[in-house]
Amino acid sequence: MKQYTYKEMPFKTLNGISDKTNAIHHDKLYAGYVKKKDEIQEKLKGVVLDSANQTYSELRALKDAETFAVNGVYLHDIYFDSLGTDAKPHGEILKEIEKTWGTFENFKALMKACGMAARGWAVLSWDTFEQGLRIYTGDQHNQGGVWGALPVLTLDVYEHAYFIDFGSDRGAYIDTWFQNLHWDRIEKRFKVYKKCSL
């Protein structure tokens, strides 16, 4: 299995989202998920399998914590990788968005509404079963995800992502997030995912 490595922030600064927020979000929170993911996976190597139990066992606790930490890492990877410029959507991702929702503005309105409704994440995903884009929401890293759906673009709506800069105005944060999307990287990821079919 390929060893996971911590990813540096792919941008220096964002418009409207402070360096302080990004430093706390990336260098402390995201880095903490990476550390815990590695720690949990190391502990799993020595867990006693004979004591596995659905009510409680060390294996059950570690496997549950593993999904939280791993998804915390991967969702944040895509979140940070999708930021860094105010470029306009283009290419295959834009065509698929327009095919699915009619216009980019319709997609943007739905993505924002999903971000307002979720407690943790709104995720634009490529559904490998249905071969189409979907927006899924999750209240925790390990809740709300759909197996067979690959995250193309992730919107972190936990308070840590915006509270320093926007207070409780999540809507203003989401609008600012849209203005900072790096559509070249999103397009590149989408082209890879679109080839996947189940």
UniProtKB/TrEMBL annotation:
Sorted UniProt keywords: Metal-binding, Oxidoreductase
Q: Which Pfam families match?
A: Sod_Fe_C (PF02777), Sod_Fe_N (PF00081)
- Substrates-to-products reaction catalysed: 2 superoxide + 2 H(+) = H2O2 + O2
> Any idea what this protein is called?
Superoxide dismutase
UniProt superkingdom: Bacteria
Annotated InterPro entries:
Fe/Mn_Superoxide_Dismutase, Mn/Fe_SOD, Mn/Fe_SOD_C, Mn/Fe_SOD_N, Mn/Fe_SOD_N_sf, SOD_C_sf
* Signal peptide coordinates: none
